[in-house]
Specification:
The protein is an all-alpha fold. It contains twelve helices and two strands, in the order H-H-H-H-H-H-H-H-E-E-H-H-H-H. Its main location: membrane.
Amino acid sequence: MKKRILLSFGVLSVFLFLTGCSEIKKPITSESTGFWNEYIVYPLSWLIKEGAHLLGGSYGLSLIVVTLVIRLAILPLMIKQTRSSKAMQALQPEMKALREKYSSKDQKTQQKLQQETMALFQKHGVNPMAGCFPLIVQMPILIGFYHAISRTREIASDSFLWFDLGEKDPYYILPIIAGITTFIQQKMMMAGQEQNPQMAMMLWMMPIMIVFFAFSFPAALSLYWVVGNIFMIVQTYFIKGPDLKAQAAGNAGGAKK
């Protein structure tokens, strides 16, 4: 879990670094060169513009549709993440037994604990880092959206609902919704898992970071994150329905007592 937290902070740090790169002020066109421009930024810019043409000129609606298309494209990866999470949940009793067996904090015992834990993962075909893969995949897309929005005049200058796509949300509504939906999505993903201080910290830290970053970035980026989170919440509900219902029943039973 500590590795996942460090990885999350690392990926978000890379995101902040890349969003500040010098090309951010250069318009993106079909003539733009370089792998980043040709295969990530320009295709996203083109998709949003073409979608707007089909949707009556609304770049906001186009952004929502493109977000859903991307989410559907990475859906197999997200399903794999959810299944990996459920597999980790099923292994919790055995992992707890290993921690009790190797409870000593000396280096030799801790190395043995790591070896036994990895052997347990291999036996059941579980990848403990699978939960981080979607974040790693999403970051280039998120950065690509940032560049596509900022470097495409038609998108950056368009308005949608109460905000301009290329400017900050003036009322900070979208950043707050982004944080809330991030919290709900993570809470659903953790349903049924054994809670620990690291997981509790991750549950709160990630939404807070998202809100903090969203305050400064274009509203279109928050819109992408909110739509993606809602998609994930619906997806997780259908995949982890039994776990969520069992947790809700347990909470209700505890409240009655």
